[in-house]
Amino acid sequence: MNYSEDQYARLLGELYSRHPSVQTAGFAAGAYKPGLDAMRRFDAALGHPSQQIRTLHVAGTNGKGSVCSMLAAALSATGLRVGLYTSPHLVDFRERIKLVGPDGWSMVPKEYVFRFLTEQDLGDLSFFEITTGLAFRWFADEQVDIAVIEVGLGGRLDSTNILTPELAVITSIGLDHCALLGSTRAAIAGEKAGIFKPGVPALCGQCDAETAPVFEAHAAAAPCPLFYAADFDTESFGTDLAGPCQAENLRTALAALELLGIDLTPAVREALAHTATRTGLRGRWERLRDDPEVICDIGHNPPALEINFRRLRESGRPLIFVYGIMADKDLDAIRPMMPEGARWFLVAPRGERALPAAQLARRLQGLDCTVCASVEDGVRQALAAAESTPGCILYIGGSNFVVAEAVPLFNP
How far from the centroid of its chain's Cα atoms is residue 70's Cα? Predict the structure, then answer.
């Protein structure tokens, strides 16, 4: 089969339908397949690319995508060609698999994806196993100097955990995906710490009384040296990732760079300050418009939304929201955090997992809610409201998928 744009689009559509992703189908329909056996077999069939590349492995409830991008940006500033594997994507499937170099970033070519999907026996592999194999094989073929790999879910049973990296990083621990990872932060920390490997340094971005004993026990069992970001004398400076947690993410990234022996030269510092531009990262407190000010953020679980909502309240400005949520998220925990006195335009992004906007409105009684027909309709109505509300902030979020549908409306 020869490559064409139409054939590529058809093949990608078949990938989504035959191998549903967690992002679209949730954790049913075979989308989530915990365990490493299938991934190891697939890696072997691909020629063991996981063993042909140097890697850094990053897990965490929140912040792991930002830390991965910071590390890729910094390493590229030293002259390295860096593979970057993150998820989910917002607009283009290929956003998951990038090459970040001294001269900029690029996504895996469509032709490469097409050839990979047509030549490999994908059998009953999960969507994430397929994309992980694709990333590893492309990075190996490109002979990247190092690859920064983000865990998809948890750590211990995640497909990426066939790696033996040069450094394992855990950014933060919060309550999310509790049905799969555990109902306490300690239990979730144990799943994340499953990426610790014998002799491989492990770095934790957060340390507290509940999670530290878990990290220390897993490090002792591996065994591996364990470090905490707070133990490093890192400096603070601004980056183009403007979200409330980015100072903490930067501290974790700087500690990781010190462990890797990377000096904070002016070039590395400049790259970190322009992480989003250097790596193409989107949706992290991203300003989509200045007047009215429109912010989008992919934060979707209680720990992330608590921080975002608090920052918005503390602005003291009128607030307008375009908000949607997946049906499996803990709305009962999120509801008390939601700013009172704001206007809420409720939406349901495309996909089976989304909570219908009318149901969301019924559960948000007491807030000033408008049910919208789609994300596009919600953005349109919210912008009209913002135009007549001087000094307001329009925030778009609650779900990766809300942001994914909104971003092209501002940046076609």
Answer: 13
